[in-house]
Amino acid sequence: MSGNEFILEITGLLVNYGAISAVNEINLNIRQGEIVSLIGTNGSGKTSTLRSISGIVKASAGQIRFQGQDITRLEPHQIVKLGISHVPEGRGIFPDLTVVENLKVGAYVRKGRNEVKGDMLEVFRLFPRLEERKKQLAGTMSGGEQQMLAIGRALMAKPQLLLLDEPSMGLAPIVVREIFKAIRRIHNDGVSVLLVEQNTSMALAVAHRGYVMETGNITLHGTAEELKHNDLIRSVYLGIH
């Protein structure tokens, strides 16, 4: 796939929860090898967008295509098999399983034990702290370590597209820097990333392009550089007046 072709194409996506419209006929795309940030305040529809891509929430209308294939109606496990992994807001790790057991769960769609072992070593290279804690129960680890584990678990499925929902939420600045360094390394390994992140300056520092969502609509999109210099973004999201 060439650099200009889209790995993900969303057209006219509508997500309703009963009578409430969470996502209002948006269009969004990601090229192979891009990091794209989705910016917006709480309740603007960012999480619903990610959940619809990964099949957790079904679209009410519109189409989601991944590598040219329509995935709008597929089940979450089928979408993981195709190459999309989702790190949800709140991490969603299994607290009563060890680090290694959590990582193995992430590889459930895959065959080949040796490959899985090799991938676990890759995760430990990315997050050395997880190797130190590998026999520890996930529920007893710090928030930052749990976030690393959630990302590591998603990588065990060998995704081509990684969906990250608020990876820095509730974490100390030093840990946030570590997480974002890891996002850059994951991208350098050839994984495309769709990043939902409240920390707008970090999100734009790591992204190639960005979309801004307000009340279910995409109101602005452009390169990360363009968005950094946009007056609205500077005043509302970056706190620069």
TrEMBL record:
<dbReference type="InterPro" id="IPR003439">
    <property type="entry name" value="ABC_transporter-like_ATP-bd"/>
</dbReference>
<dbReference type="GO" id="GO:0015807">
    <property type="term" value="P:L-amino acid transport"/>
</dbReference>
<dbReference type="GO" id="GO:0016887">
    <property type="term" value="F:ATP hydrolysis activity"/>
</dbReference>
<dbReference type="GO" id="GO:0005524">
    <property type="term" value="F:ATP binding"/>
</dbReference>
<feature type="domain" description="ABC transporter">
    <location>
        <begin position="8"/>
        <end position="240"/>
    </location>
</feature>
<keyword id="KW-0547">Nucleotide-binding</keyword>
<dbReference type="InterPro" id="IPR017871">
    <property type="entry name" value="ABC_transporter-like_CS"/>
</dbReference>
<keyword id="KW-0029">Amino-acid transport</keyword>
<dbReference type="InterPro" id="IPR052156">
    <property type="entry name" value="BCAA_Transport_ATP-bd_LivF"/>
</dbReference>
<dbReference type="InterPro" id="IPR027417">
    <property type="entry name" value="P-loop_NTPase"/>
</dbReference>
<dbReference type="InterPro" id="IPR030660">
    <property type="entry name" value="ABC_branched_ATPase_LivF/BraG"/>
</dbReference>
<protein>
    <submittedName>
        <fullName>ABC transporter</fullName>
    </submittedName>
</protein>
<dbReference type="InterPro" id="IPR003593">
    <property type="entry name" value="AAA+_ATPase"/>
</dbReference>
<keyword id="KW-0813">Transport</keyword>
<dbReference type="Pfam" id="PF00005">
    <property type="entry name" value="ABC_tran"/>
</dbReference>
<comment type="similarity">
    <text>Belongs to the ABC transporter superfamily.</text>
</comment>
<keyword id="KW-0067">ATP-binding</keyword>
<dbReference type="GO" id="GO:0015658">
    <property type="term" value="F:branched-chain amino acid transmembrane transporter activity"/>
</dbReference>
